[in-house]
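Duplicate of earlier report; Cytochrome bc1 complex cytochrome b subunit input re-posted below.
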Amino acid sequence: MSTVNRAAGGTADYLDQRTGIGLAVKNFARKIFPDHWSFLLGEIALYSFVILIITGFFLTMFFVPSMGLITYEGPLASMDGVEMSEAFASTLVLSFEVTGGLLMRQIHHWAALLFMASIVTHMMRVFFTGAFRKPREINWLVGFVLMILGLAAGFTGYSLPDDVLSGNGLRITDGVVKSIPVVGSYMSYFVFGGEFPGEHIIPRLFTLHILVIPGLILALVGLHLFLVVLHKHTHFPGPGRTERNVVGFPLFPVYVAKAGGFFFVVFSVLALMGGTMTINPVWNYGPYDPSPVSAGAQPDWYMLFLEGALRLMPGAGTEWVVAGYTLSLNVLVPAVIVPGLLFTVLALYPFVEAWASGDKREHHVLDRPRNAPTRTASGVAILTAFGVLLAAGTNDLIATHFGVSINDITRVLRVLLFVAPVVAFITTKRLCLGLQRKDRELVLHGHETGRIVRFADGEYIEVHRPLDEYERWLRVHHQPVRPLELLPAEDERGVRRKGYRRDAFRARVSRFFFEDRVEPVTPTELAAAQSHGAHDALSAPEHGDSTLVEAVANIKPEHGGMPTGEVTRGPATPRH
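Output:
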C-alpha cells in the first residue's frame, strides 16, 4: 500500500471513530437518483449559485460600497474628470484596471441570470408534474422562498454599481414603497436613510447582497437537499416504477461523476458567455444622476414583469386622496397587490389542490402533465400572463424597432393581459384532454401502420400494431382524481348539516379541478378491445411481411368473408 493510501485510510479511520461519519457516507452513497434530464434543472441552479459565490468573492475584494463622491481619473477617456460615487468608480476600476475583473463581472452577471432561469424552470417542472404533492409541500415552500431570495439577490446586486440604469430602478423602488398606504413614506425613509437617494442605500444593499441573502440561500439549499434525501426522489411513470421504490443510479460513483462533470459544463458555458457576450456595460450609462431617464432601459428579465405591469397600468384617475393620504393605485396595484396575490397563490397551490382533491396519499411517481389538465392549463395561463408582462416591459424597444406606436402596443398588451391567459387556459386544457383520448385509443387499438386489408365480403380494416409493455404502462398506470361528492344539505332527520356551505364551496372547487377528465383504460376494456375474432391474426406481422398474406389466407372470419386484397398508404407493396 502506498504512503498516500495509508494516509487517506488513516484519516478516514480517525474521523469515523470520532464522528461515525462512515455509516452516514455509506448510506448516502447508496442513495438512488433517477436518470432524467429534467432533474438537472435543479443542479444548474445549485452550480450557478456556487459560481456566484466564487466570482462574488473576487468582486468583493475590489468593490467599494460607498456613495461618497469622487472625481474619476482612469483609463476610460469618456469618464475622465466626471464626478461619481466611489461605488461606480470601483466598478470602472474592476472593469478596466483589475486583471480579469471584467470577465468576473460578466460571469457573475450571467450566472445570476442563469440562477434565476434554472430556479423558475425547475419550479415549472415540479409544478407541471405534480412533484409538490404530499409529502413534499414543505419543500415546495422552501423552493418558493429560494425563488424570492433569488429575486432579492438579483435586485440588490444589480443596484450596486450606482449607474443611471440601476439608479432608475432604485427610484422606481422608492415610488413603489411610497405607494403603500399610511406607512409607505416612513418605510422609504427607513430604507434609504432619508430622502431618496440618500447616502446609505448602496452600503445597505451591499450588506444584504453579500451576507444576509447568500446566508439564507445557503441555509435553504441545505434544507432543500435534506428534504430531497429524506423523502427520496420522485421519478417518472414507467414499468417497475412504483410509489415504494426509486429507479435510477446510486449517488456514488455514478451520480457523483455525472454531477461533477456537469458542474464544469455549466461553468465553461458561463465562462464562454462572460468572455464573449457583453452584459451591463455601466460605462455606457454613466454614474447615477436623478435628472436623466433614458429610453430603452429595462431591468434583468426576472424583474421585467414588474416593469411591464407598471407600464400597462393606466395613470389617469388612479390617484385618490383619502383622509389626507394619497392613494396611488397606478403604482400600488401593479407593483404590490398583483404580485403579492400571484406569489401567494403560487406558494399555497399545493395545499389548495390537496384540499380540492381530498387526497391524503403520498406520491412519489410523477404525473404526466396531460393527466392533470386543469393544473397544466393553469400553469400555462400564468406563464402566458408573465410573457405578456415581459413584452410590456420592452414596449418602447418594440415600438422603436418595428416603427409602431407605443400607445397602440400598450393598448393591445392591456387587452392581451386579460384575454391571452383565458385563451391559453382553454386551449391547453382541451389539448390535454385530447391527448388523454389519444392515449386511450392507442391502448385499445394500437399504432396505425398505414396498411389496409380488404376481406372477401368487401370489409376494409386497417392493421394496427399493439403497444409494447412500456408504452401501455405509461398510458394506463395513473389513477384519475374525481371531484368530491357533496353530501345532502340535510341529514336523514331533516336537520341542516353543519358546514354544508363550506362543503359546497369545496365541491365547486373540486369540480373545477377534476370534473373534466378522461378515465384510463381498464383491464376489461383492454381485453374486449383486443378480441377481434378473425382480425387478430392481422396485427402480428410487420408491414410488408409476406407471412401476413399467409396468416390472412388461413382466416375463416366470423362474418364469412375471406381477405382478398389490400390497400396501402405510403410506399407501394405487391397486391395479393
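Residues 539-576 have pLDDT under 50 and may be disordered.

Merging into the original ticket.
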